[in-house]
Prior knowledge:
Shape: rod-shaped
Oligomer: single chain
Helix content: 40-55%
Radius of gyration: 49 Å
Distance between the termini: 153 Å
Amino acid sequence: xxxxxxxxxxxxxxxxxxxxxxxxxxxxxxxxxxxxxxxxxxxxxxxxxxxxxxxxxxxxxxxxxxxxxxxxxxxxxxxxxxxxxxxxxxxxxxxxxxxxxxxxxxxxxxxxxxxxxxxxxxxxxxxxxxxxxxxxxxxxxxxxxxxxxxxxxxxxxxxxxxxxxxxxxxxxxxxxxxxxxxxxxxxxxxxxxxxxxxxxxxxxxxxxxxxxxxxxxxxxxxxxxxxxxxxxxxxxxxxxxxxxxxxxxxxxxxxxxxxxxxxxxxxxxxxxxxxxxxxxxxxxxxxxxxxxxxxxxxxxxxxxxxxxxxxxxxxxxxxxxxxxxxxxxxxxxxxxxxxxxxxxxxx
Length: 347
């Protein structure tokens, strides 16, 4: 049974139903399908088989005719919309002229130096981009406009609980400075550019901190802020947003971790202090040894040192009473003791 092929849908088979009413399809394609010629499609049913043939050239012609028809239909619809738009614009101008000068109060609008106005006429963007600053003209009933503030905005990112790369939970908050760089894109490409930028800032902060170790977060804040600024600026460029600066405000650690880090730092400081004190004692002992050698070579130097010590004591503590004792007397007693011990040893 020969069946015509519908190029936009599956083939339709009349008759050939079996007892169960169900059909199964099996498509067999010959080598002529790729390079032109005749293609055979067989459909197996419960009651028997049905097949039909068609040429690829005819199939291509049908597709081209259908595509051309759809294109003409779109052109016709665009032409009808354009014609309708022209009529509405003409009627709007007629309304402005008839209600002059009261219509001027509605048609003329003013935007500030830091603002721009994005105008939609019959739902489409008006050519020429955003208007402003200053005065601009709109048509009543068919024009709508949106004000866009170009000033830099500040967003305080709420504290984010982040698990760092070395499995430490920290709370990080930051500040993001951004502004609208393209008013038309910020209105046409995204529903709420400011809200989207803020949500992206929170997500970027969490993702960036999650790939860093704790010591990097504490010591490389400027580097992390720069990488976040580049990432946010690249992502928000399609929204007409320019991220100017990102600053990390604070990094809060758990209380237990703070105590552990404080104890570690205190132990390190005590160890350094002991090392410094030991080095000082070592240098002092070397200096005392050299001083003793100098004093041993000159007995008068010891006497002068003795008098200097007395002078120091009398200047610092006036209530102290010092009885000077000549060192020569001690030397006499020491020599007497040595001679006594020598005589007993010989006896």
